[in-house]
């Protein structure tokens, strides 16, 4: 500890030098940019640059650790006539629909239930969020075992009803269901919590007024809750769209042997898997890069369609 | 970047120093620096040896220990990166080769990727300049020639080779009322027809297990027996043209697998998947085509509790070779000379014998094959089976099989179709055309 003997010299009031004025200006105009810059710098390095470089690579016949040759749009031309690419697109969209629609509906109902006065409400709300803290891969590994043909839980349960063991990987429908359950198990609670948070911002008096007018709980839900939640639902749908269209870890783990083929005939190969397969199994980086750009366009389109669609929920005002 | 490199080098040097300290601290070891190969290195260097493979993989633990004790100036750091070659090790290695950093000083390469690597001479050190051309007489022509790249330079030396046998579960054979002695079991199936009949008998006994694991191990066994009968070709001819449709070796192997699958002999398992692992351990199937390295895989996956349950018999249909690896020195290494010395040691007689003892990896080196230590070796895990003798028999008069640049991709693609056929996703009568189409597409 030191004792301060003399008071620090005080600046004479009203005497401002030019540099300090410039500093103040910088403080006001410059510092905010400086403070947010780390994110944008990182984004430039890890976001924008790879995006641009991928575009560059996609214009080449680019073999990993091999020859590269500029071919213009040839990769794109080949891709849009490639059956297995469209198969991957159909799988991705299919699993997106199979997973997301029940997920959002379930999340909405769950949020509505959790919004009621319940005993142990906090515990229930936390519990819903619990699956989110598990790792995606761990979830996929466990579910893959549950769906395993020989010793799986689901086949065991089905055997009570005389159903023969299903090889879940074998058909499109069965593999899609299996993968969708993995996604839903992990993400339904997360969406429910976001919707719940939004629900709690809806003024109570709206419900009271509706109740006085004789609106049933169901009418209140569809006429008040859902319309008031619209921005949040849009957000949740966007996030799910991006997640759904870049689906990767679950089907890869489900395959068991990660050659990225997504089943023996590509039953559940997603676009993301198609990209990795092209790049790191077939070593065609150019082709993979082109597919990555098409996926980007696909997500953009998907998000736009969803935006248009969700705007209609609860009647546009 | 520069700083980072320096850090790595210092780190490596430190490791080497520590290793030496550890060695001399041990006190017991005599360190003969007189061995002709080690005298050159002035400063201690660390040579990173990177390999792949499940179970005991390359089996270099003992060999490395011996070398490190004798060569204070060249310390080997042996890392088995992964048990998966095609989907983990190979893409990673290619990326590291292209990036010019990160690959080991010595890298293991599986047979399926040798065509791919031979087509990329720019990434590998010419081992000829370190005098390894002199090793030619040590290897069968097949093994040696695969190590020459597109420029005609020697870039890789052979480690193990597969040979071909049939592994079987003694306990399941007993349950099915079949003979269990390996001589008698071998006599059950002189050819594949007899194998099929044995399989039907096994299935009829309803042991709860299937006769074979899945379609693709047996498919590879037959393919590598048939290839030498058809110009030593599998999917590509020597001009890198796809011959999948015209090569009778492919069709014959495909037809056999179809027959086995239709007869319901397979457990419909995908090789190298978790379910396959589980079945090896839990007795889900009774036989599996067994190149020598597969013994190490089985031992690793079945675990000590299954010791004595597995045994080795002769394979139907005669000699053949499936698999085997090579060691190469990437050009990016800072110590090519020392790395070449390490390659020379590990692919030499001593290295081969140590690997055979540890992992059952059958030596491709001729002097090692003739060594009594190999010829008389028994495998304790497999009921003291005389594996040295069995595998020596299986590689007699072995013919080389040629691998195209895209062999690995075509192999993966067509094997998926076979798997789909076996599991029911592809109809039997459409399987061949889909098989060919998948191969054509993968060959690009």
Share in helix of chain A: 55-70%
Number of domains of chain B: 2
Task: Kindly report the name of the CATH homologous superfamily of the domain at 74-135 and 180-311 in chain A.
Answer: MetI-like
Oligomer: heterodimer
Please write out the topology:
The complex is a heterodimer of chains A (317) and B (444).
Chain A: H1 18-29, H2 31-58, E1 60-62, E2 68-70, H3 74-80, H4 83-114, H5 121-129, H6 136-146, H7 153-160, H8 172-199, H9 204-212, H10 217-228, H11 230-245, H12 249-255, H13 271-280, H14 285-311
Antiparallel strand pairs in A: 1-2
Chain B: H1 2-26, E1 45-52, H2 61-70, E2 74-82, H3 85-99, E3 106-110, H4 114-118, H5 141-146, E4 156-161, E5 165-169, H6 170-175, H7 182-188, H8 192-204, E6 210-212, H9 215-226, H10 248-262, H11 274-282, E7 285-290, H12 292-302, E8 310-314, E9 324-328, H13 336-346, H14 349-359, E10 362-363, H15 366-370, H16 372-375, H17 387-394, H18 407-423, H19 428-443
Parallel strand pairs in B: 1-2, 1-3, 6-7
Antiparallel strand pairs in B: 3-9, 4-9, 4-10, 5-7, 5-8
Helix pairs in contact in B: 9-10, 18-19
Task: Please give a structural write-up.
Chain B: Keywords: Signal. Chain B: InterPro entries: Bact_solute-bd_prot1, SBP. Chain B: This is Carbohydrate ABC transporter substrate-binding protein. By secondary structure, chain A is mainly alpha-helical. Chain A has a domain at 74-135 and 180-311: MetI-like (MetI-like fold, Orthogonal Bundle), CATH 1.10.3720.10. Chain A is built from 14 helices and 2 strands, in the order ααββαααααααααααα. Chain A has helices at 18-29, 31-58, 74-80, 83-114, 121-129, 136-146, 153-160, 172-199, 204-212, 217-228, 230-245, 249-255, 271-280, 285-311, and strands at 60-62, 68-70. In chain A, strand 1 (60-62) and strand 2 form a beta hairpin. In chain A, helix 4 crosses helix 13, helix 5 (121-129) crosses helix 8 (172-199) and helix 6 (136-146) packs parallel to helix 12 (249-255). Chain A is flat, with a radius of gyration of 27 Å. The N and C termini of chain A lie far apart (67 Å). Chain B is an alpha/beta fold. Chain B has 2 domains: 2-162 and 324-375, 3-Layer(aba) Sandwich (D-Maltodextrin-Binding Protein, domain 2), CATH 3.40.190.10; 165-323 and 401-443, Periplasmic binding protein-like II (D-Maltodextrin-Binding Protein, domain 2, 3-Layer(aba) Sandwich). Chain B is 46% helix and 12% strand. Chain B is built from 19 helices and 10 strands. Chain B has a 6-stranded mixed beta sheet. Residues 1-41 of chain B have low confidence and may be disordered. Classes of the chains: A mainly alpha (317), B alpha/beta (444). At the A-B interface, loops of A face helix 3, helix 11, helix 18 and helix 19 of B.
